[in-house]
Amino acid sequence: MATFFETSNRISSMAAIVLLLGLLVANLGTTGGESIGICYGMMGNNLASTSEVISLYTSNNIKRMRIYDPNQAVLQALKDSNIELMLGVPNSDLQSLAANPSSANSWVQRNVLSWPSVRFRYIAVGNEVSPVNGATASLAQFVLPAVRNVFNAIKSAGLQDQIKVSTAIDMTLIGTSYPPSQGAFRGDVRAYLDPIIGHLAYAKAPLLANVYTYFSYAGNPRDISLPYALFTSPSVVVWDGQRGYQNLFDALMDALYSALERTGNPLEVVVSESGWPSAGGVATTVDNARAYYSNLIRHVKKGTPKIPDRAIETYLFAMFDENQKPQELEKHFGVFFPNKQPKYSLNFNGERIIWEGVDVDQYNATVSLKSEM
């Protein structure tokens, strides 16, 4: 008679085999041009049901999703949807996953291996943790051991080539961003960040980065023009040697690439969040947000001046306006309203937004960009 542990191990192994086969079969239909996903936040009391949301992704040809915790209803709704998922480990779970490998094994078993018909692409262990940010500084010590433990659990299941384990940073960890070729991380975060980057290089995983030109512009509108932040500048704004920068997004990305090179590990970067709010702050108009999202979707298929031949896998923030976010600005990043109506006419991977069977693009007039500064 098998012991409890032998039986558990066999079940885990079988689940991993089924999940691996599902991922391999699903990947046969993937093309390299599908680089846009959307973050699905759920901090709202007026949002559509999870099954309706998955249908909205599917009907609009949105092939990738990021969620911030292993919401079981979302995982259930994602079954057999063929949507690729970036699954988040909440910051509140970092300490327990760092302290005990068995906790990470259980987390992976419960939230990944138990869902063989969900297409997991990444696990984002922590979001925007920084040793110099008072709100998250106490968690910084747990990020690397949590990443390692989750990675080892995924590796034990034989899924390390299909599901990449990383963490999401924000751009406040960059100390030098201008010119982009001189990009470097802050000196006071290197002891925290370099070992994480080293592990990601070993695991052949990308770094996840939340990249917002909006916050750069809003924090320095004197030196950063609105067209430069919105991809609408008609000509090069910044020259860096032989490289010309016509938009701020490219400059931020190349500063990050340069910073990674200076650590000795030039990782690939996945943009795990990027967006522009339509209300609640400086230059937050519907017109500006529409311009940003539509231009970003087109632009990331091209790469940057530093790495022009590499499309940038990018996740728009966010799917919906979320009325329970703590700050007013944060409530207005949605590309859809909570009732599933599109806020903008956007073209996801060659398909127009469809709402209740109607192509809304034909009803949206072209409008000039304006700032509320």
Describe the protein's architecture and organization:
This protein is of the alpha/beta class. 35% of the residues lie in helices and 17% in strands. The chain is built from 11 helices and 16 strands. It has helices at 4-27, 50-59, 72-78, 94-99, 101-113, 140-156, 190-203, 213-219, 226-230, 248-262, 286-299; strands spanning 36-39, 64-67, 84-89, 119-127, 164-170, 174-176, 184-185, 207-210, 238-240, 243-245, 269-274, 314-316, 347-348, 351-352, 354-355, 358-359. The chain has an 8-stranded parallel beta barrel with strand order 1-2-3-4-5-8-11-12. Strand 15 and strand 16 form a beta hairpin. Helix 5 (101-113) packs across helix 6 and helix 6 packs parallel to helix 7 (190-203). Residues 1-12, 21-34 and 350-373 have low confidence and may be disordered.
What would the keywords be for this entry?
373 residues; alpha/beta; two-stranded antiparallel sheet; 11 helices; 16 strands; 17% strand; globular; disordered N terminus; disordered C terminus
